[in-house]
Amino acid sequence: MAFTVELEEWVGSAWHRFITRRASPDFPEARVELQSMQRSLALLFRALGGAAGVSVDAASARELLVRRNLVQQVAGTCQQLPVAWCDSNNLRLPASLAVYPQVALNQELYRWLALLAAQSGPMRHWARDNQRWTQQLLEQFPALRPRYQRLVEAHLPLRPDPAQLPREEAALERALQQALREPGSVSQFPRSERAPWPLPMWLYPAENLGAPQSSELSEDNGEEQGGQPPRQDSKLRKRGKRIEEQSGKDGLLLFRLENLFSWSEHVELDRCEDDSEDLDASRVAEDLDELALSRKRMRKGGGLKLDLDLPAADFDDLPLGPGIKLPEWDYRKQQLKDDFVNLQLMLPRGSEPKGLPAHLAPLARRLRRQFENLRHTRQWLRGQPQGSELDLQAWLDFHVERQHGQCAERGLFMEQRNTRRDLACLLLADLSMSTDAHLNNHSRVIDVIVDSLLLFGEALSAVGDAFALYGFSSLRRQQVRLQELKSFQQRYNDDTRGRIQALKPGYYTRMGAAIRQATRQLEGCPQRRKLLLLVTDGKPNDIDLYEGRYGVEDTRQAVLEARSKGLLPFCITIDREAGAYLPFMFGANGYTLIHQPEQLPTRLPQLYRQLTRD
Protein backbone atom coordinates (compact mmCIF):
# COMPACT_ATOMS: atom_id res chain seq x y z
CA MET A 1 0.00 0.00 0.00
CA ALA A 2 2.85 2.37 0.92
CA PHE A 3 4.57 1.59 -2.39
CA THR A 4 1.38 2.49 -4.28
CA VAL A 5 1.11 5.84 -2.49
CA GLU A 6 4.76 6.67 -3.21
CA LEU A 7 4.30 5.71 -6.87
CA GLU A 8 1.24 7.94 -7.16
CA GLU A 9 3.16 10.85 -5.61
CA TRP A 10 6.09 10.33 -7.96
CA VAL A 11 3.84 10.16 -11.02
CA GLY A 12 1.96 13.25 -9.87
CA SER A 13 5.10 15.31 -9.34
CA ALA A 14 6.55 14.16 -12.66
CA TRP A 15 3.35 15.10 -14.47
CA HIS A 16 3.30 18.49 -12.72
CA ARG A 17 6.87 19.27 -13.81
CA PHE A 18 6.17 18.14 -17.36
CA ILE A 19 2.93 20.03 -17.91
CA THR A 20 4.30 23.18 -16.21
CA ARG A 21 7.36 23.22 -18.49
CA ARG A 22 5.20 22.70 -21.57
CA ALA A 23 2.79 25.46 -20.58
CA SER A 24 5.43 28.06 -19.72
CA PRO A 25 6.03 30.69 -22.44
CA ASP A 26 9.46 31.55 -20.95
CA PHE A 27 12.96 30.39 -21.84
CA PRO A 28 14.46 29.27 -18.49
CA GLU A 29 17.93 28.73 -19.94
CA ALA A 30 18.15 32.46 -20.81
CA ARG A 31 16.68 33.80 -17.57
CA VAL A 32 18.15 37.04 -16.18
CA GLU A 33 17.58 38.03 -12.55
CA LEU A 34 16.77 41.62 -11.64
CA GLN A 35 19.10 41.44 -8.63
CA SER A 36 22.13 41.05 -10.89
CA MET A 37 21.30 44.30 -12.76
CA GLN A 38 19.46 46.30 -10.10
CA ARG A 39 22.23 48.79 -9.35
CA SER A 40 23.11 49.48 -12.98
CA LEU A 41 19.42 49.90 -13.87
CA ALA A 42 18.93 52.39 -11.04
CA LEU A 43 21.94 54.36 -12.30
CA LEU A 44 20.62 54.28 -15.87
CA PHE A 45 17.13 55.34 -14.77
CA ARG A 46 18.45 58.36 -12.85
CA ALA A 47 21.00 59.32 -15.50
CA LEU A 48 18.18 59.84 -18.03
CA GLY A 49 16.10 62.06 -15.78
CA GLY A 50 14.30 59.62 -13.48
CA ALA A 51 13.59 60.89 -9.97
CA ALA A 52 16.49 60.10 -7.67
CA GLY A 53 14.23 59.07 -4.80
CA VAL A 54 12.40 56.39 -6.80
CA SER A 55 13.42 52.90 -5.74
CA VAL A 56 14.00 50.13 -8.29
CA ASP A 57 12.53 46.87 -6.95
CA ALA A 58 10.84 43.68 -8.09
CA ALA A 59 7.22 43.67 -9.21
CA SER A 60 4.80 41.00 -8.10
CA ALA A 61 2.82 39.04 -10.67
CA ARG A 62 -0.42 40.67 -11.80
CA GLU A 63 -3.70 39.00 -12.70
CA LEU A 64 -4.41 39.51 -16.40
CA LEU A 65 -7.49 38.18 -18.17
CA VAL A 66 -5.56 36.77 -21.15
CA ARG A 67 -6.56 33.95 -23.47
CA ARG A 68 -4.69 30.81 -22.52
CA ASN A 69 -4.16 27.76 -24.67
CA LEU A 70 -5.31 24.29 -23.67
CA VAL A 71 -1.99 23.24 -22.15
CA GLN A 72 -1.86 26.37 -20.00
CA GLN A 73 -5.42 25.79 -18.82
CA VAL A 74 -4.62 22.20 -17.86
CA ALA A 75 -1.47 23.30 -16.03
CA GLY A 76 -3.26 26.20 -14.35
CA THR A 77 -0.48 28.63 -15.26
CA CYS A 78 -0.29 32.08 -16.86
CA GLN A 79 -3.11 33.43 -14.73
CA GLN A 80 -0.66 35.86 -13.13
CA LEU A 81 2.13 37.41 -15.15
CA PRO A 82 4.85 39.89 -14.10
CA VAL A 83 4.77 43.28 -15.83
CA ALA A 84 6.70 46.52 -15.32
CA TRP A 85 5.15 49.68 -13.90
CA CYS A 86 6.26 53.00 -12.51
CA ASP A 87 4.81 55.77 -10.34
CA SER A 88 6.18 58.68 -8.33
CA ASN A 89 7.62 56.40 -5.62
CA ASN A 90 8.46 53.09 -7.30
CA LEU A 91 9.91 51.59 -10.42
CA ARG A 92 8.83 47.97 -10.38
CA LEU A 93 10.40 45.55 -12.85
CA PRO A 94 9.84 41.78 -13.12
CA ALA A 95 11.98 39.85 -10.65
CA SER A 96 13.37 37.88 -13.60
CA LEU A 97 13.08 38.00 -17.37
CA ALA A 98 13.07 34.98 -19.65
CA VAL A 99 11.00 36.51 -22.47
CA TYR A 100 13.65 35.92 -25.14
CA PRO A 101 15.72 32.82 -25.85
CA GLN A 102 18.95 34.86 -25.62
CA VAL A 103 20.38 36.23 -22.38
CA ALA A 104 21.61 39.40 -24.10
CA LEU A 105 18.09 40.27 -25.28
CA ASN A 106 16.62 39.81 -21.81
CA GLN A 107 19.31 42.09 -20.39
CA GLU A 108 18.59 44.61 -23.13
CA LEU A 109 14.88 44.46 -22.25
CA TYR A 110 15.66 45.41 -18.64
CA ARG A 111 17.65 48.42 -19.86
CA TRP A 112 14.86 49.46 -22.23
CA LEU A 113 12.27 49.37 -19.44
CA ALA A 114 14.49 51.53 -17.23
CA LEU A 115 14.93 54.05 -20.07
CA LEU A 116 11.21 54.09 -20.84
CA ALA A 117 10.37 54.60 -17.15
CA ALA A 118 12.72 57.59 -16.99
CA GLN A 119 10.83 59.10 -19.96
CA SER A 120 7.37 58.26 -18.66
CA GLY A 121 4.84 60.39 -16.81
CA PRO A 122 1.27 60.02 -15.56
CA MET A 123 -0.54 57.31 -17.53
CA ARG A 124 -3.94 58.17 -19.02
CA HIS A 125 -4.16 55.60 -21.82
CA TRP A 126 -1.99 52.52 -21.68
CA ALA A 127 -1.30 52.03 -25.39
CA ARG A 128 -1.19 55.67 -26.53
CA ASP A 129 1.03 56.78 -23.66
CA ASN A 130 3.52 53.95 -24.19
CA GLN A 131 3.71 54.79 -27.88
CA ARG A 132 4.31 58.44 -27.10
CA TRP A 133 7.04 57.71 -24.55
CA THR A 134 8.72 55.28 -26.93
CA GLN A 135 8.57 57.78 -29.77
CA GLN A 136 10.04 60.56 -27.61
CA LEU A 137 12.81 58.29 -26.37
CA LEU A 138 13.81 57.21 -29.86
CA GLU A 139 13.74 60.79 -31.15
CA GLN A 140 15.86 62.03 -28.26
CA PHE A 141 18.35 59.16 -28.53
CA PRO A 142 18.48 57.90 -32.15
CA ALA A 143 21.20 55.39 -31.25
CA LEU A 144 18.53 53.35 -29.42
CA ARG A 145 16.58 52.61 -32.62
CA PRO A 146 18.61 49.51 -33.66
CA ARG A 147 18.32 48.08 -30.14
CA TYR A 148 14.59 48.74 -30.07
CA GLN A 149 14.10 47.11 -33.48
CA ARG A 150 15.99 44.00 -32.34
CA LEU A 151 13.71 43.67 -29.32
CA VAL A 152 10.57 44.12 -31.43
CA GLU A 153 11.65 41.73 -34.19
CA ALA A 154 12.53 39.06 -31.63
CA HIS A 155 9.28 39.52 -29.70
CA LEU A 156 6.69 39.59 -32.50
CA PRO A 157 7.14 35.89 -33.49
CA LEU A 158 6.47 34.96 -29.85
CA ARG A 159 3.13 36.74 -29.72
CA PRO A 160 -0.22 35.02 -30.43
CA ASP A 161 -1.17 34.64 -34.11
CA PRO A 162 -4.13 36.96 -34.86
CA ALA A 163 -5.48 34.38 -37.34
CA GLN A 164 -6.15 31.99 -34.45
CA LEU A 165 -7.91 34.54 -32.22
CA PRO A 166 -11.55 35.68 -32.17
CA ARG A 167 -12.34 38.70 -34.29
CA GLU A 168 -12.19 41.41 -31.58
CA GLU A 169 -9.05 40.00 -29.96
CA ALA A 170 -7.40 39.59 -33.36
CA ALA A 171 -8.08 43.22 -34.26
CA LEU A 172 -6.57 44.39 -30.96
CA GLU A 173 -3.52 42.15 -31.42
CA ARG A 174 -2.88 43.54 -34.93
CA ALA A 175 -3.14 47.10 -33.64
CA LEU A 176 -0.67 46.39 -30.83
CA GLN A 177 1.83 44.74 -33.17
CA GLN A 178 1.57 47.74 -35.49
CA ALA A 179 2.15 50.06 -32.50
CA LEU A 180 5.27 48.09 -31.60
CA ARG A 181 6.67 48.28 -35.14
CA GLU A 182 5.90 51.99 -35.61
CA PRO A 183 5.33 53.79 -32.30
CA GLY A 184 2.75 56.54 -32.61
CA SER A 185 1.09 55.13 -35.74
CA VAL A 186 -2.02 53.78 -33.93
CA SER A 187 -4.39 56.15 -32.16
CA GLN A 188 -7.53 54.02 -31.86
CA PHE A 189 -7.52 50.52 -30.40
CA PRO A 190 -10.39 48.02 -30.75
CA ARG A 191 -12.17 46.93 -27.62
CA SER A 192 -11.92 43.37 -26.36
CA GLU A 193 -13.29 41.49 -23.37
CA ARG A 194 -9.92 39.82 -22.85
CA ALA A 195 -6.62 41.55 -22.25
CA PRO A 196 -3.91 41.07 -24.87
CA TRP A 197 -0.92 38.91 -24.16
CA PRO A 198 1.52 41.01 -22.06
CA LEU A 199 3.78 43.44 -23.90
CA PRO A 200 7.11 43.19 -22.03
CA MET A 201 8.44 46.35 -23.71
CA TRP A 202 5.68 48.59 -22.34
CA LEU A 203 4.88 49.91 -18.88
CA TYR A 204 1.59 49.02 -17.24
CA PRO A 205 -0.61 51.14 -14.95
CA ALA A 206 0.74 51.45 -11.44
CA GLU A 207 -0.62 49.06 -8.86
CA ASN A 208 -2.33 50.35 -5.75
CA LEU A 209 -0.18 48.66 -3.16
CA GLY A 210 -2.27 50.02 -0.32
CA ALA A 211 -1.16 52.03 2.68
CA PRO A 212 -0.87 49.92 5.85
CA GLN A 213 -0.61 53.11 7.93
CA SER A 214 -3.61 54.76 6.32
CA SER A 215 -5.86 56.81 8.49
CA GLU A 216 -8.70 54.47 7.62
CA LEU A 217 -7.20 52.02 10.09
CA SER A 218 -6.61 54.57 12.84
CA GLU A 219 -8.55 54.79 16.05
CA ASP A 220 -11.57 57.00 16.45
CA ASN A 221 -9.60 59.65 18.32
CA GLY A 222 -7.64 60.49 15.20
CA GLU A 223 -4.25 59.44 16.55
CA GLU A 224 -2.04 57.60 14.11
CA GLN A 225 -1.72 53.97 15.07
CA GLY A 226 0.61 51.27 13.89
CA GLY A 227 2.50 48.26 14.97
CA GLN A 228 5.81 46.67 14.33
CA PRO A 229 6.30 46.25 10.61
CA PRO A 230 6.63 42.72 9.26
CA ARG A 231 10.01 41.34 8.36
CA GLN A 232 11.03 42.36 4.89
CA ASP A 233 12.48 39.03 3.80
CA SER A 234 10.95 39.41 0.35
CA LYS A 235 11.35 42.34 -2.00
CA LEU A 236 7.89 41.79 -3.48
CA ARG A 237 5.06 43.96 -2.30
CA LYS A 238 1.53 42.68 -1.95
CA ARG A 239 -1.66 44.22 -3.18
CA GLY A 240 -3.91 45.29 -0.34
CA LYS A 241 -7.62 45.82 0.11
CA ARG A 242 -9.70 46.85 3.07
CA ILE A 243 -12.76 44.93 4.08
CA GLU A 244 -15.41 45.29 6.75
CA GLU A 245 -15.09 42.53 9.29
CA GLN A 246 -18.17 40.36 9.57
CA SER A 247 -18.74 39.51 13.21
CA GLY A 248 -21.17 36.74 12.39
CA LYS A 249 -23.60 37.97 15.06
CA ASP A 250 -26.08 39.59 12.72
CA GLY A 251 -29.05 37.90 11.13
CA LEU A 252 -31.00 34.78 12.03
CA LEU A 253 -29.02 31.76 13.22
CA LEU A 254 -30.68 28.37 12.72
CA PHE A 255 -29.33 25.32 14.57
CA ARG A 256 -30.46 22.14 16.20
CA LEU A 257 -30.52 22.22 20.02
CA GLU A 258 -29.09 18.70 20.26
CA ASN A 259 -25.89 20.02 18.65
CA LEU A 260 -25.12 22.15 21.73
CA PHE A 261 -22.62 20.93 24.31
CA SER A 262 -24.13 19.79 27.56
CA TRP A 263 -22.75 21.13 30.86
CA SER A 264 -20.68 17.98 31.41
CA GLU A 265 -19.15 18.18 27.95
CA HIS A 266 -17.89 21.76 28.38
CA VAL A 267 -14.09 21.97 28.29
CA GLU A 268 -12.20 25.20 28.99
CA LEU A 269 -9.73 25.89 26.18
CA ASP A 270 -7.37 28.78 25.59
CA ARG A 271 -8.88 30.51 22.58
CA CYS A 272 -7.18 33.86 23.11
CA GLU A 273 -6.60 35.40 19.71
CA ASP A 274 -5.04 38.67 20.78
CA ASP A 275 -1.96 37.32 22.56
CA SER A 276 -1.41 34.06 20.70
CA GLU A 277 1.22 34.28 18.00
CA ASP A 278 0.70 32.55 14.69
CA LEU A 279 4.11 31.18 13.80
CA ASP A 280 3.06 30.45 10.23
CA ALA A 281 1.60 33.89 9.57
CA SER A 282 4.65 35.20 7.68
CA ARG A 283 4.82 32.06 5.52
CA VAL A 284 1.13 32.26 4.71
CA ALA A 285 1.38 35.98 3.90
CA GLU A 286 4.27 35.24 1.53
CA ASP A 287 2.08 32.84 -0.44
CA LEU A 288 -0.85 35.25 -0.74
CA ASP A 289 -1.19 37.55 -3.73
CA GLU A 290 -3.50 40.01 -1.97
CA LEU A 291 -3.67 40.95 1.70
CA ALA A 292 -6.99 42.01 3.22
CA LEU A 293 -6.90 44.48 6.11
CA SER A 294 -9.74 45.15 8.50
CA ARG A 295 -10.27 46.97 11.77
CA LYS A 296 -11.57 44.85 14.57
CA ARG A 297 -13.56 46.66 17.21
CA MET A 298 -14.03 44.96 20.54
CA ARG A 299 -16.17 46.52 23.23
CA LYS A 300 -15.30 45.31 26.71
CA GLY A 301 -16.80 46.94 29.72
CA GLY A 302 -14.71 47.47 32.83
CA GLY A 303 -11.42 46.91 31.02
CA LEU A 304 -8.26 48.96 31.01
CA LYS A 305 -7.05 50.66 27.86
CA LEU A 306 -3.26 50.61 27.81
CA ASP A 307 -0.96 52.27 25.29
CA LEU A 308 1.95 49.84 24.91
CA ASP A 309 3.81 51.91 22.33
CA LEU A 310 5.85 53.69 25.01
CA PRO A 311 6.82 52.49 28.50
CA ALA A 312 5.33 54.09 31.55
CA ALA A 313 6.97 57.27 32.82
CA ASP A 314 8.54 55.38 35.75
CA PHE A 315 10.38 53.07 33.36
CA ASP A 316 11.03 55.33 30.39
CA ASP A 317 14.19 57.35 29.84
CA LEU A 318 14.48 60.70 31.59
CA PRO A 319 13.35 63.72 29.54
CA LEU A 320 15.54 66.83 29.49
CA GLY A 321 13.47 69.98 29.22
CA PRO A 322 10.51 70.58 26.90
CA GLY A 323 10.24 69.18 23.41
CA ILE A 324 11.87 70.88 20.44
CA LYS A 325 9.77 71.67 17.35
CA LEU A 326 11.52 70.89 14.05
CA PRO A 327 10.48 71.12 10.40
CA GLU A 328 10.19 68.21 7.97
CA TRP A 329 10.50 68.10 4.18
CA ASP A 330 7.47 67.00 2.16
CA TYR A 331 8.79 66.13 -1.30
CA ARG A 332 5.27 65.89 -2.70
CA LYS A 333 4.66 69.59 -1.96
CA GLN A 334 8.33 70.54 -2.31
CA GLN A 335 8.29 72.51 0.91
CA LEU A 336 9.31 72.35 4.56
CA LYS A 337 6.47 71.83 7.03
CA ASP A 338 7.31 74.06 9.98
CA ASP A 339 7.07 72.71 13.55
CA PHE A 340 5.94 69.35 12.21
CA VAL A 341 8.17 67.12 14.35
CA ASN A 342 8.56 67.09 18.13
CA LEU A 343 12.03 66.07 19.35
CA GLN A 344 12.67 65.23 23.00
CA LEU A 345 16.14 65.20 24.56
CA MET A 346 16.49 62.30 27.00
CA LEU A 347 18.95 60.59 29.33
CA PRO A 348 19.15 56.76 29.53
CA ARG A 349 17.37 55.65 32.70
CA GLY A 350 19.39 53.64 35.16
CA SER A 351 22.75 54.83 33.91
CA GLU A 352 25.49 54.87 36.54
CA PRO A 353 29.13 55.90 36.28
CA LYS A 354 31.09 52.98 34.90
CA GLY A 355 34.59 52.38 33.71
CA LEU A 356 35.64 51.08 30.34
CA PRO A 357 34.78 47.37 29.87
CA ALA A 358 37.78 45.09 30.29
CA HIS A 359 37.57 43.60 26.79
CA LEU A 360 38.01 47.08 25.25
CA ALA A 361 40.89 48.25 27.45
CA PRO A 362 43.83 47.00 25.28
CA LEU A 363 42.38 48.45 22.08
CA ALA A 364 41.51 51.72 23.83
CA ARG A 365 45.12 52.13 25.05
CA ARG A 366 46.42 51.62 21.52
CA LEU A 367 43.95 54.13 20.07
CA ARG A 368 44.81 56.73 22.70
CA ARG A 369 48.51 56.46 21.85
CA GLN A 370 47.76 56.87 18.14
CA PHE A 371 45.45 59.85 18.60
CA GLU A 372 47.65 61.64 21.12
CA ASN A 373 50.14 62.16 18.30
CA LEU A 374 47.48 64.20 16.47
CA ARG A 375 46.90 66.62 19.34
CA HIS A 376 49.40 69.10 17.86
CA THR A 377 49.83 68.70 14.13
CA ARG A 378 52.47 70.36 12.01
CA GLN A 379 51.06 72.45 9.15
CA TRP A 380 52.61 74.48 6.37
CA LEU A 381 51.89 78.21 6.66
CA ARG A 382 52.00 79.95 3.29
CA GLY A 383 52.94 83.54 2.39
CA GLN A 384 55.51 83.97 5.17
CA PRO A 385 58.25 86.66 4.96
CA GLN A 386 60.80 84.01 5.81
CA GLY A 387 60.85 80.26 6.05
CA SER A 388 62.47 76.97 5.16
CA GLU A 389 60.76 76.43 1.78
CA LEU A 390 59.89 78.63 -1.19
CA ASP A 391 56.15 79.19 -1.69
CA LEU A 392 55.86 78.59 -5.44
CA GLN A 393 52.25 79.72 -5.63
CA ALA A 394 53.05 83.03 -3.88
CA TRP A 395 56.09 83.54 -6.11
CA LEU A 396 53.99 82.91 -9.25
CA ASP A 397 51.35 85.42 -8.09
CA PHE A 398 54.10 87.98 -7.42
CA HIS A 399 55.61 87.43 -10.88
CA VAL A 400 52.22 87.88 -12.65
CA GLU A 401 51.46 91.05 -10.71
CA ARG A 402 54.87 92.53 -11.57
CA GLN A 403 54.29 91.79 -15.27
CA HIS A 404 51.06 93.82 -15.06
CA GLY A 405 52.75 96.76 -13.37
CA GLN A 406 51.67 95.84 -9.84
CA CYS A 407 54.09 94.92 -7.11
CA ALA A 408 52.28 94.32 -3.81
CA GLU A 409 54.33 93.20 -0.85
CA ARG A 410 53.84 89.55 -0.04
CA GLY A 411 55.68 86.72 1.65
CA LEU A 412 57.33 84.22 -0.66
CA PHE A 413 58.20 81.46 1.81
CA MET A 414 56.53 78.57 3.68
CA GLU A 415 57.13 77.70 7.30
CA GLN A 416 56.06 74.51 9.10
CA ARG A 417 54.73 75.12 12.61
CA ASN A 418 52.77 73.31 15.26
CA THR A 419 49.09 74.30 15.20
CA ARG A 420 46.17 73.22 17.33
CA ARG A 421 43.33 71.33 15.65
CA ASP A 422 40.27 73.51 15.09
CA LEU A 423 37.58 70.82 14.76
CA ALA A 424 34.21 69.84 16.29
CA CYS A 425 32.45 66.52 15.72
CA LEU A 426 28.96 65.26 16.63
CA LEU A 427 28.19 61.57 16.31
CA LEU A 428 24.62 60.29 15.94
CA ALA A 429 24.02 56.58 16.62
CA ASP A 430 20.92 54.77 15.35
CA LEU A 431 19.18 53.05 18.31
CA SER A 432 16.11 51.71 16.47
CA MET A 433 14.66 48.28 17.16
CA SER A 434 16.58 46.78 14.25
CA THR A 435 19.78 47.14 16.31
CA ASP A 436 18.43 44.40 18.59
CA ALA A 437 19.20 41.87 15.86
CA HIS A 438 21.96 39.33 16.51
CA LEU A 439 25.13 39.40 14.44
CA ASN A 440 26.33 36.06 15.83
CA ASN A 441 25.88 33.90 18.90
CA HIS A 442 27.69 36.39 21.12
CA SER A 443 26.71 39.95 20.16
CA ARG A 444 23.94 42.09 18.76
CA VAL A 445 24.10 45.19 16.60
CA ILE A 446 23.48 47.40 19.65
CA ASP A 447 26.45 45.80 21.41
CA VAL A 448 28.72 46.68 18.50
CA ILE A 449 27.38 50.27 18.48
CA VAL A 450 28.02 50.62 22.23
CA ASP A 451 31.60 49.40 21.83
CA SER A 452 32.08 51.78 18.89
CA LEU A 453 30.86 54.78 20.92
CA LEU A 454 33.15 53.89 23.83
CA LEU A 455 36.25 53.55 21.67
CA PHE A 456 35.34 56.64 19.68
CA GLY A 457 35.12 58.63 22.91
CA GLU A 458 38.46 57.29 24.12
CA ALA A 459 40.16 58.27 20.87
CA LEU A 460 38.72 61.79 20.64
CA SER A 461 39.34 62.57 24.29
CA ALA A 462 42.99 61.70 23.63
CA VAL A 463 43.32 64.00 20.62
CA GLY A 464 41.53 66.86 22.39
CA ASP A 465 38.91 67.58 19.68
CA ALA A 466 35.54 68.95 20.77
CA PHE A 467 32.94 66.22 20.31
CA ALA A 468 29.43 65.19 21.33
CA LEU A 469 27.70 61.79 21.36
CA TYR A 470 23.97 61.20 20.83
CA GLY A 471 21.68 58.30 20.05
CA PHE A 472 18.31 58.61 18.35
CA SER A 473 15.11 56.70 17.65
CA SER A 474 11.51 57.68 16.94
CA LEU A 475 7.88 56.70 17.29
CA ARG A 476 5.94 58.83 14.82
CA ARG A 477 6.60 62.51 14.39
CA GLN A 478 5.32 63.38 17.88
CA GLN A 479 8.03 61.35 19.64
CA VAL A 480 11.54 61.67 18.18
CA ARG A 481 13.90 60.64 20.97
CA LEU A 482 17.46 62.00 21.15
CA GLN A 483 19.56 60.33 23.85
CA GLU A 484 22.18 62.75 25.19
CA LEU A 485 25.31 60.75 26.00
CA LYS A 486 27.81 63.61 25.95
CA SER A 487 27.28 67.24 24.98
CA PHE A 488 30.01 69.58 23.81
CA GLN A 489 30.13 71.20 27.25
CA GLN A 490 30.56 67.91 29.16
CA ARG A 491 33.76 66.01 29.73
CA TYR A 492 34.24 62.42 28.61
CA ASN A 493 34.38 60.46 31.87
CA ASP A 494 32.77 57.53 33.66
CA ASP A 495 29.38 59.28 33.61
CA THR A 496 29.46 59.26 29.81
CA ARG A 497 30.68 55.66 29.70
CA GLY A 498 27.81 54.65 31.98
CA ARG A 499 25.23 56.34 29.76
CA ILE A 500 26.60 54.60 26.70
CA GLN A 501 26.50 51.18 28.35
CA ALA A 502 22.89 51.79 29.46
CA LEU A 503 21.61 52.22 25.90
CA LYS A 504 18.75 50.00 24.77
CA PRO A 505 17.30 49.53 21.27
CA GLY A 506 13.75 50.49 20.44
CA TYR A 507 11.32 52.13 18.03
CA TYR A 508 12.12 53.48 14.56
CA THR A 509 14.52 55.67 12.56
CA ARG A 510 13.42 59.24 11.76
CA MET A 511 16.80 60.44 10.50
CA GLY A 512 15.82 63.87 9.21
CA ALA A 513 14.81 65.29 12.62
CA ALA A 514 17.93 63.91 14.34
CA ILE A 515 20.21 65.40 11.65
CA ARG A 516 18.50 68.81 11.89
CA GLN A 517 18.92 68.94 15.67
CA ALA A 518 22.57 67.86 15.35
CA THR A 519 23.07 70.62 12.77
CA ARG A 520 21.69 73.20 15.20
CA GLN A 521 24.09 72.09 17.90
CA LEU A 522 27.12 72.11 15.59
CA GLU A 523 26.18 75.58 14.36
CA GLY A 524 26.79 76.91 17.86
CA CYS A 525 30.36 75.57 17.98
CA PRO A 526 33.14 78.14 17.40
CA GLN A 527 35.41 75.65 15.60
CA ARG A 528 36.16 76.21 11.94
CA ARG A 529 35.65 72.62 10.77
CA LYS A 530 32.50 70.74 11.80
CA LEU A 531 31.89 67.04 11.19
CA LEU A 532 28.52 65.29 11.55
CA LEU A 533 28.82 61.49 11.70
CA LEU A 534 25.82 59.14 11.48
CA VAL A 535 26.13 55.46 12.42
CA THR A 536 23.17 53.35 11.28
CA ASP A 537 22.15 49.87 10.23
CA GLY A 538 19.32 50.69 7.82
CA LYS A 539 17.33 53.27 5.91
CA PRO A 540 15.03 55.90 7.46
CA ASN A 541 11.59 54.67 8.45
CA ASP A 542 8.75 55.16 10.90
CA ILE A 543 5.20 53.85 11.28
CA ASP A 544 3.45 56.92 9.92
CA LEU A 545 4.15 58.42 6.50
CA TYR A 546 7.92 58.36 7.09
CA GLU A 547 8.52 55.32 4.89
CA GLY A 548 10.05 54.68 1.50
CA ARG A 549 10.71 57.75 -0.62
CA TYR A 550 9.23 60.18 1.92
CA GLY A 551 11.83 59.33 4.57
CA VAL A 552 14.68 59.19 2.05
CA GLU A 553 13.79 62.61 0.61
CA ASP A 554 13.50 64.23 4.05
CA THR A 555 16.87 62.82 5.12
CA ARG A 556 18.47 64.06 1.91
CA GLN A 557 17.03 67.53 2.48
CA ALA A 558 18.36 67.56 6.05
CA VAL A 559 21.83 66.61 4.75
CA LEU A 560 21.69 69.40 2.15
CA GLU A 561 20.71 71.88 4.87
CA ALA A 562 23.70 70.76 6.96
CA ARG A 563 26.07 71.18 4.02
CA SER A 564 24.72 74.66 3.27
CA LYS A 565 25.70 75.68 6.82
CA GLY A 566 29.30 74.55 6.40
CA LEU A 567 29.02 71.10 8.00
CA LEU A 568 30.47 67.87 6.64
CA PRO A 569 27.83 65.09 7.02
CA PHE A 570 29.12 61.52 6.67
CA CYS A 571 27.29 58.21 7.16
CA ILE A 572 28.76 54.91 8.38
CA THR A 573 26.44 51.96 7.78
CA ILE A 574 26.42 48.18 8.08
CA ASP A 575 23.39 47.76 5.81
CA ARG A 576 24.36 45.72 2.73
CA GLU A 577 21.51 47.36 0.77
CA ALA A 578 22.88 50.85 1.46
CA GLY A 579 24.07 51.31 -2.12
CA ALA A 580 20.45 51.63 -3.23
CA TYR A 581 19.64 54.75 -1.18
CA LEU A 582 22.68 56.27 0.60
CA PRO A 583 24.27 57.78 -2.55
CA PHE A 584 21.08 59.78 -3.02
CA MET A 585 20.98 60.95 0.58
CA PHE A 586 24.67 61.59 1.31
CA GLY A 587 26.29 61.62 -2.13
CA ALA A 588 28.66 59.09 -3.69
CA ASN A 589 31.52 60.11 -1.36
CA GLY A 590 29.41 60.85 1.71
CA TYR A 591 29.12 57.36 3.16
CA THR A 592 30.98 54.12 3.72
CA LEU A 593 29.77 50.54 4.15
CA ILE A 594 31.28 48.29 6.82
CA HIS A 595 30.89 44.81 5.34
CA GLN A 596 31.76 43.08 8.63
CA PRO A 597 29.81 44.81 11.42
CA GLU A 598 32.10 43.31 14.08
CA GLN A 599 34.85 45.62 12.78
CA LEU A 600 32.85 48.82 13.41
CA PRO A 601 34.49 49.60 16.81
CA THR A 602 37.96 49.63 15.25
CA ARG A 603 36.96 51.15 11.90
CA LEU A 604 35.09 54.14 13.35
CA PRO A 605 38.15 55.91 14.87
CA GLN A 606 40.14 55.16 11.71
CA LEU A 607 37.44 56.74 9.54
CA TYR A 608 37.41 59.80 11.77
CA ARG A 609 41.16 60.12 11.38
CA GLN A 610 40.87 59.94 7.60
CA LEU A 611 38.00 62.45 7.43
CA THR A 612 39.84 65.01 9.58
CA ARG A 613 43.18 64.68 7.84
CA ASP A 614 44.40 68.05 6.57
TrEMBL record:
It comes from the Bacteria. Residues 211-243 are annotated as: Disordered. SUPFAM superfamilies: vWA-like. Gene3D superfamilies: von Willebrand factor, type A domain. InterPro entries: NorD/CobT (IPR051928), VWF_A (IPR002035), vWFA_dom_sf (IPR036465). Residues 422-611 form the VWFA domain. CDD domains: vWA_norD_type (cd01454). This is VWFA domain-containing protein. It comes from Pseudomonas fluvialis.
